[in-house]
């Protein structure tokens, strides 16, 4: 059994049981208790080419140097999220208890569901598509005043990715006119979703739990950057 697993670790317990003419429960017990194996889901990772790794490494070193020379500077992180109005559905986990198949209701989806893009900004201390015009409007009316209020006179820097609205000349001019220091497209490592704080991988039961998760994610930013540089721009998770 162990020889078969080592030869093909992706073989399911059902297949291992069928090949041996025994029950799945028996194979599961042998795998877990006798051999000490556990069944894990394969993790998805962003493909990184040699060029991507080199860019991540160069920009990561530049960012680390900036963090070291401006240790007290507040960082405001941002990202966009596109929400669809179709019902969330997981084909594996969403089940319906019934005696007959025809009692199970269908989940209706559309080929091109309506969607809304939102912009989220979080601080390291604490209904339309977003084009350059709308992005600048939100920045000037909401985000920039909010960042200045939260910073309360302290030095801060704004992080954004290389989305078209973020790197538009109009956006750059807006930041410069307000004296906002920001990481431009040549500074923030592209293809680096594992560097920006992520707090939505798990559900939170309360606002306080979400706040604590955000705080931990922001505090770990420098550590993730150092791990990425140590990995020569490669994967860190």
Provide an overview of this structure.
There is one protein chain. The protein is built from nine helices and three strands, in the order H-H-H-H-E-E-H-E-H-H-H-H. The chain has 237 residues and is mostly helical. It folds into two domains: 33 residues, no CATH class; 181 residues, Nucleotidyltransferase, domain 5 (2-Layer Sandwich), CATH 3.30.420. The protein has a three-stranded mixed β-sheet, with helices on one face. The protein is extended.
The gist of it:
This protein is 43% helix and 10% strand.
Topology, element by element:
Elements: H1 2-7, H2 13-20, H3 24-34, H4 50-69, E1 74-84, E2 115-123, H5 132-151, E3 156-158, H6 164-167, H7 169-177, H8 207-219, H9 221-230
Parallel strand pairs: 1-3
Antiparallel strand pairs: 1-2
Helix pairs in contact: 2-3, 4-9
GO molecular function, one term: nucleic acid binding
Protein name: Transposase
InterPro entries: RNaseH_sf
What are the salient characteristics of this protein?
237 residues, mainly alpha, Nucleotidyltransferase, domain 5, 2 domains, 3-stranded mixed beta sheet, 43% helix, Transposase
Q: What is the CATH topology classification name of the largest domain?
A: Nucleotidyltransferase, domain 5
Give the helices and strands as they follow along the chain: HHHHEEHEHHHH
Q: Regions with pLDDT < 50 over 5+ consecutive residues?
A: none
Tell me the β content: 5-15%
CATH architecture of the largest domain: 2-Layer Sandwich
Q: Which percent range fits the helix content?
A: 40-55%
Shape: extended
- Major beta-sheet overview: 3 strands, mixed
């Amino acid at each position: 059994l162990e020889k078969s697993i080592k030869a093909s670790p992706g073989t399911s317990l059902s297949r291992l049981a069928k090949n041996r003419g025994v029950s799945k429960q028996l194979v599961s017990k042998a795998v877990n208790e006798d051999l000490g194996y556990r069944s894990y889901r394969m993790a998805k990772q962003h493909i990184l080419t040699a060029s991507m790794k080199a860019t991540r490494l160069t920009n990561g070193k530049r960012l680390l140097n900036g963090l070291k020379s401006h240790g007290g500077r507040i960082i405001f992180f941002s990202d966009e999220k596109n929400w669809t109005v179709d019902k969330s559905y997981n084909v594996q986990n969403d089940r319906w208890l019934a005696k007959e198949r025809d009692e199970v209701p269908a989940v209706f989806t559309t080929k091109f569901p309506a969607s809304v893009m939102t912009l989220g900004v979080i601080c390291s201390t604490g209904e339309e598509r977003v084009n350059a015009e709308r992005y600048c409007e939100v920045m000037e009316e909401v985000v920039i005043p909010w960042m200045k209020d939260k910073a309360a006179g302290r030095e801060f820097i704004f992080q954004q990715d290389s989305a078209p609205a973020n790197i538009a000349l109009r956006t750059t001019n807006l930041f410069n006119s307000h004296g906002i220091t920001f990481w431009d497209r040549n500074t923030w490592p592209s293809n680096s979703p594992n560097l920006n704080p992520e707090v939505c991988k798990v559900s939170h039961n309360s606002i306080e739990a979400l706040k604590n998760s955000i705080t931990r994610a922001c505090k770990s930013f420098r550590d993730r950057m150092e791990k990425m540089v140590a990995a020569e721009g490669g994967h860190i998770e």
